[in-house]
Amino acid sequence: MPGFKIKNLREIEPEHSTPEEIEARFARRHLDSEELGVSYFRYGPGFRSPTGHHHRVQEEAYVVVGGSGRVKLDDQIFDLRRWDVVRVSPEVTRGFEAGPDGLELVAIGGNKPEGGDGVAVRDWWTD
Predict the structure, then answer these.
(1) pTM score above 0.85
(2) 79-110 residue pLDDT tens
(3) What is the Cα–Cα distance from 79 to 91, expressed in whole angstroms?
(4) Three-class DSSP category at 9
(5) Who's near 22: CB < 8 A, 6+ residues apart?
(6) Which pLDDT value is given to residue 60?
(7) For residue 32, what is the DSSP state?
(8) In 35-66, which positions are buried (b, 16+ CB within 10 angstroms) versus exposed (e)?
(9) What are the angstrom distances between the C-alpha of 42 and each of 2, 33, 75, 94, 107?
(10) d(CA 125, CA 127)
(11) How far is residue 113's CA from residue 96's CA, in Å, rounded to a whole number?
(12) How many angstroms separate the CA atoms of 43 and 82, rounded?
């Protein structure tokens, strides 16, 4: 097996377990990677995910590649614009809200423990 792999994120089948307002494509297995996860997310215009999440050990970074929006990190909310990068420690609960033109993100995560380590926080971002 070569020491590299090239895969177009937009050609990976989207997950069907997410709300219809979110398009999610996960590349880890398509890249044959044990150490690195790369994912694409597109949130529909004005959509806010009511579910946040945090991790037990995995640090993540998110790059805004299209649109704009906001991110809630624990109890703080920040505006996001194209090319912003957000690094999040594992214990910080995070969630996203799209602006009027939607929000497109590329998420990068480290080594994923066996079975994953994400912890969903339901009804987390409500007004």
Answers:
(1) yes
(2) 999 999 999 999 999 999 999 999 999 999 98
(3) 21
(4) helix
(5) 41, 42, 43, 44, 47, 49
(6) 96
(7) T
(8) eebbbbbbbeeebbbeebbbbeebebebebbe
(9) 31, 23, 23, 16, 11
(10) 7
(11) 24
(12) 14
Total length of the chain: 127
What token pair was written down for 61?
């970074």
Encode 36-104 in three state secondary structure. CEEEEEEECCCCECCCEEEECCCCEEEEEEEEEEEEEECCEEEEECCCCEEEECCCCCEEEEEEEEEEE
Residue with tokens 């214990």, as numbered in its chain:
91
Look-up: residue for tokens 């044959």? Answer: 32
Residue type, 66: G
Residue corresponding to tokens 């529909």: 44
